[in-house]
Amino acid sequence: MAGPTPDERPHPTGRRDEHGVRKEPDHGPEPTRRATVSALVEDEPGVLARAAGLFRRRQFNIESLTVGPTTVEGHSRITLVVEETEAGIEQAKKQLAKLTPVIAVGELSGDAVAAELVLLKVRGEEPDKVHAITSMYDGQTLDAGPRTITVQITGDENTIDDAIDAFDQFGIIEIARTGQTALERGDSPTTPGEEPGHSAGETDDDEFTNYDD
Amino acid sequence: MEETDDDRASDPRRRARRGRRRGRTDRAERPDEADAEPTDEPTADAAAARAEAATRSPGTGANAVIAALEAAGVETAFGVQGGAIMPVYDALSASSIHHVTMAHEGAVHAADAYGIVRGDPGVCMATSGPGATNLVTGIADASMDSDAMLALTGQVPSDMVGSDAFQETDTVGVTAPITKHNYFASDSDDVGRTVGEAFALAGTGRPGPTLVDLPKDVTFGETDRPVGEPAAPDRAIPDAEADDRQVEEAASAIQRAERPLCLFGGGVIKGDATEEARAFAREFGIPVVTTMPGIGSFPEDEDLCLSWAGMHGTGYANMAITHTDCLIAVGTRFDDRLTGGVDTFAPEAEVVHVDIDPAEISKNVHADYPVIGDAATVLDQLDAAIGYADAPDTAAWREQCAAWREQYPMDYAIDPDEPVKPQFVVEAFDAAMDDDAYVTTGVGQHQMWAAQYWTYREPRTFVSSHGLGTMGYGLPAAIGARVAADDDRQVISFEGDGSFLMTIQELSVAVRENLDVTIVVLNNEYIGMVRQWQDAFFEGNHMASQYDWMPEFDTLAEAFGAKGFRIDEYDDVEGVVEEALAYDGPSVVDAHIDPEENVYPMVASGAANGQFALAEDQL
């Protein structure tokens, strides 16, 4: 076959980054950020496995994943925290939205309400001090025995981290931590188009205020 | 030299082929079906039969499964009988649906090809366990290529699920990542509706494979509930029309361009948008490259068409894609075999990306102008938004593309004393066959030659395994294509020796059904593509790629009851082409080709498209 060899051919100097975006020559690595994604899903068998499998297969970095029922019977909410580049987060949301049982996907804003729960089992030698720390974090003592005390703390991620640090002085035996769940603040729906729960909509004249107002 | 239409029409061999039945004998024997020829428009009788199936009381879950298929208008299913699927097959015996019993659950490839040719989901069936897992490759294949397909699998009775029962596999779990969606049927009353939904979903929006797992107690169980019309969930039905603002922005980008290039992917064909795509490119004089799945979306014998780009695409297509300043990509997912290294892909181009699936936008290549919608609708929208007066002036750019076509022609050298070149065999069949013949292929060097040296003019005529690259796809796909195609359309399959041997048992099906297909084995006694890479990147160490233990395929074909032919030298070609095509039934041409011939041009894995090699020393 004829024609100039590869080196003799004209070549554009431009380049793209790993996401296929045309870039400047001094382009550095893409920064990552944490995003909390909320997905409203049909509560059918295997839906969590589908979501988790999707994230594993596409190598998205999941920090936490929680799931639970919503106000609508047959619907569940999956809350995911991912640490990705901007393009990665967009792709994660789109892939999640593509799953057939997924009804809507939203990314939560920075001031969304987020909380998680931790159960801590600590050594019981100093019950008074343990109780003091538990009260400081508005926690509850669930079990107190001669050798161990088990407490429950809820709060945002930083609060939980701080509490674990504070309990560390007693010797932590076991921890069970749920991962984050979250809702959008105020009147904004957590996922696009999400309807308010039935009890929230019931008024005397059987009309409910517009959720988006 | 191109033949004229008149030449072809007066060729007695061609006329003899037209109207020949393709061997759907058991269908023909049904009195009510004997005269029914498939047409694009459903007849009143067919519509009535569908409505009847949707509303009748099925009796059992298995009858509901079949009623759902009938209500969906399914005419043919491919599969293998087995333990857990037996109730469904029993119900199938009373149906008008034609079941093609395959020799292996490679039936899935036949269903895949059937779906590609028909444009409706192909249906395949298998039992639980090994039946279901044998479907997995073909389901993954359909998933990668966005082929609409419905797979029905038997399952052990519900109360034994999870107990590692005989022939039990977690089919829903195994196939979840490779299906558009899958279902575990848990209720005889719902199973018919579920099958209908799965069928409809497979063909809705971006097509893909769906699966319904059918526990034996559910198919045995009684139900009086009619299955209803098949319907995809509302949520799964995307808007056909794109957002006006997206269209306008994309249109201005195209107007501003000096070197615009259309990139038509498989989505143009899947979305039945070839007419709109052709009109768009022709109206504005924009050169066209296709992806490999997009082959046939634009006629390859038109000046505007630069054929397909990517790893083994034409040099001129790869030059054009490297130098375009506005890439109008329709229905493509920017696979790495197309893009090469993403860093060097169309580095000066603003990308307009039209796709029905929002998740494809900016997945591999960032879209400067995303336009989400149905390809045909969006192309019409874009066409209207640009307007002829504001079209970009592409004369100089087209001239440049033509120059590249001259510089890097698709070419190969013939020496009459040397072994036959595979490209020559492909071209010989192309010249002897109709423009709208269906070509199926296995995977490897032969697939590339069949893609490079056959001139495709019509959509759905190139039926191949693209994304997954499944060896052995060609023969079962030829069976599926033959069953799907109108009688006057020819079907040929190019296979490699290694690829053919992987599913050669399906030849027994082609013989039993008396399918008029021509199978051409480009036999180089190598896993040729592997050998080519070993020569280029592994110092010629032919580890496990030398297949000099291949059987005589022409003799083997005769053992199956097919007709065998053999090509050893150039002088054999013309006669064998003529005889093989004239033979009414499955014929196998064992074409012994130059074992050292390689596929070029070639873009090395991850390299720049414009760096395509024309010979090994350029890699």
UniProtKB/TrEMBL annotation, chain A:
<keyword id="KW-0028">Amino-acid biosynthesis</keyword>
<dbReference type="InterPro" id="IPR019455">
    <property type="entry name" value="Acetolactate_synth_ssu_C"/>
</dbReference>
<dbReference type="GO" id="GO:0003984">
    <property type="term" value="F:acetolactate synthase activity"/>
</dbReference>
<comment type="similarity">
    <text>Belongs to the acetolactate synthase small subunit family.</text>
</comment>
<dbReference type="Pfam" id="PF22629">
    <property type="entry name" value="ACT_AHAS_ss"/>
</dbReference>
<dbReference type="Pfam" id="PF10369">
    <property type="entry name" value="ALS_ss_C"/>
</dbReference>
<feature type="region of interest" description="Disordered">
    <location>
        <begin position="179"/>
        <end position="213"/>
    </location>
</feature>
<dbReference type="InterPro" id="IPR027271">
    <property type="entry name" value="Acetolactate_synth/TF_NikR_C"/>
</dbReference>
<dbReference type="InterPro" id="IPR054480">
    <property type="entry name" value="AHAS_small-like_ACT"/>
</dbReference>
<keyword id="KW-0100">Branched-chain amino acid biosynthesis</keyword>
<dbReference type="InterPro" id="IPR002912">
    <property type="entry name" value="ACT_dom"/>
</dbReference>
<dbReference type="InterPro" id="IPR045865">
    <property type="entry name" value="ACT-like_dom_sf"/>
</dbReference>
<dbReference type="GO" id="GO:0009082">
    <property type="term" value="P:branched-chain amino acid biosynthetic process"/>
</dbReference>
<keyword id="KW-0808">Transferase</keyword>
<dbReference type="GO" id="GO:0005737">
    <property type="term" value="C:cytoplasm"/>
</dbReference>
<feature type="compositionally biased region" description="Acidic residues">
    <location>
        <begin position="202"/>
        <end position="213"/>
    </location>
</feature>
<protein>
    <submittedName>
        <fullName>Acetolactate synthase small subunit</fullName>
        <ecNumber>2.2.1.6</ecNumber>
    </submittedName>
</protein>
<dbReference type="InterPro" id="IPR039557">
    <property type="entry name" value="AHAS_ACT"/>
</dbReference>
<feature type="domain" description="ACT">
    <location>
        <begin position="36"/>
        <end position="113"/>
    </location>
</feature>
<comment type="pathway">
    <text>Amino-acid biosynthesis; L-isoleucine biosynthesis; L-isoleucine from 2-oxobutanoate: step 1/4.</text>
</comment>
<dbReference type="InterPro" id="IPR004789">
    <property type="entry name" value="Acetalactate_synth_ssu"/>
</dbReference>
<feature type="compositionally biased region" description="Basic and acidic residues">
    <location>
        <begin position="1"/>
        <end position="33"/>
    </location>
</feature>
Automatic annotation (TrEMBL), chain B:
<keyword id="KW-0808">Transferase</keyword>
<dbReference type="Pfam" id="PF02776">
    <property type="entry name" value="TPP_enzyme_N"/>
</dbReference>
<comment type="pathway">
    <text>Amino-acid biosynthesis; L-isoleucine biosynthesis; L-isoleucine from 2-oxobutanoate: step 1/4.</text>
</comment>
<keyword id="KW-0028">Amino-acid biosynthesis</keyword>
<dbReference type="GO" id="GO:0044272">
    <property type="term" value="P:sulfur compound biosynthetic process"/>
</dbReference>
<feature type="region of interest" description="Disordered">
    <location>
        <begin position="1"/>
        <end position="58"/>
    </location>
</feature>
<feature type="domain" description="Thiamine pyrophosphate enzyme N-terminal TPP-binding">
    <location>
        <begin position="60"/>
        <end position="172"/>
    </location>
</feature>
<dbReference type="GO" id="GO:0009082">
    <property type="term" value="P:branched-chain amino acid biosynthetic process"/>
</dbReference>
<dbReference type="InterPro" id="IPR012846">
    <property type="entry name" value="Acetolactate_synth_lsu"/>
</dbReference>
<comment type="pathway">
    <text>Amino-acid biosynthesis; L-valine biosynthesis; L-valine from pyruvate: step 1/4.</text>
</comment>
<dbReference type="GO" id="GO:0000287">
    <property type="term" value="F:magnesium ion binding"/>
</dbReference>
<keyword id="KW-0100">Branched-chain amino acid biosynthesis</keyword>
<dbReference type="GO" id="GO:0008652">
    <property type="term" value="P:amino acid biosynthetic process"/>
</dbReference>
<protein>
    <recommendedName>
        <fullName>Acetolactate synthase</fullName>
        <ecNumber>2.2.1.6</ecNumber>
    </recommendedName>
</protein>
<keyword id="KW-0479">Metal-binding</keyword>
<dbReference type="Pfam" id="PF02775">
    <property type="entry name" value="TPP_enzyme_C"/>
</dbReference>
<feature type="compositionally biased region" description="Acidic residues">
    <location>
        <begin position="34"/>
        <end position="43"/>
    </location>
</feature>
<feature type="domain" description="Thiamine pyrophosphate enzyme TPP-binding">
    <location>
        <begin position="442"/>
        <end position="590"/>
    </location>
</feature>
<dbReference type="Pfam" id="PF00205">
    <property type="entry name" value="TPP_enzyme_M"/>
</dbReference>
<feature type="compositionally biased region" description="Basic residues">
    <location>
        <begin position="14"/>
        <end position="24"/>
    </location>
</feature>
<dbReference type="InterPro" id="IPR012001">
    <property type="entry name" value="Thiamin_PyroP_enz_TPP-bd_dom"/>
</dbReference>
<dbReference type="InterPro" id="IPR045229">
    <property type="entry name" value="TPP_enz"/>
</dbReference>
